[in-house]
């Protein structure tokens, strides 16, 4: 098993950091999904909660300033600068080089990739969402199989979180089924649903309550 920071197994460290509250948003979603799908991980989280709970007695609760989380996320995950445009001549030459290389490279046939399925659930939540990814079609289908629709002036928003990266919105689950074009859905990625204001998160990052999630490959 790999180690996190060179001191303990990765999932054990993830459980400890989840209890300490030091994880990034994406890592926290992954941890919460593992709590639902992995009994051993859930027990590890409970163990760390019991082990670290005495620390809470030494500190009074402090309400953070409004908007602090947004400022922290902005510093941790700054927007990437726009890519520079490539001149038309360079683009033409690069395209020609790729075409020539493709002409001489033989790619052996491969077996078609398998369909990926997952069930998104959340602790204490009625919502259950089935996810099905067809790599041949490059399409992700999510269907609400149980639980209520989002309330008035609210929307369920679907996110994919590649392992170690920031959440990417895939759209709003307003109807019972949502189909999304998606190039790939690798093992270790997290699918998550949050309850956002109507129209979805205006910031491009999750803001509402996490309702359901699943880690691909841990079903």
From TrEMBL:
Which domain of life does this protein belong to?
Bacteria
Q: Which GO terms describe its biological process?
A: regulation of translation
- Sequence intervals crossing the membrane: 86-107
Enumerate the spans annotated as Anti-sigma K factor RskA C-terminal domain.
94-209
What's a Pfam family in this record?
Answer: RskA_C
Q: Which UniProt keywords apply?
A: Membrane, Transmembrane, Transmembrane helix
GO molecular function terms here? sigma factor antagonist activity
The terms describing its cellular component in GO are: plasma membrane
What is the protein name for this chain? Anti-sigma K factor RskA C-terminal domain-containing protein
Q: What organism is this sequence from?
A: Albidovulum aquaemixtae
Q: What is the lineage of its organism?
A: Bacteria, Pseudomonadati, Pseudomonadota, Alphaproteobacteria, Rhodobacterales
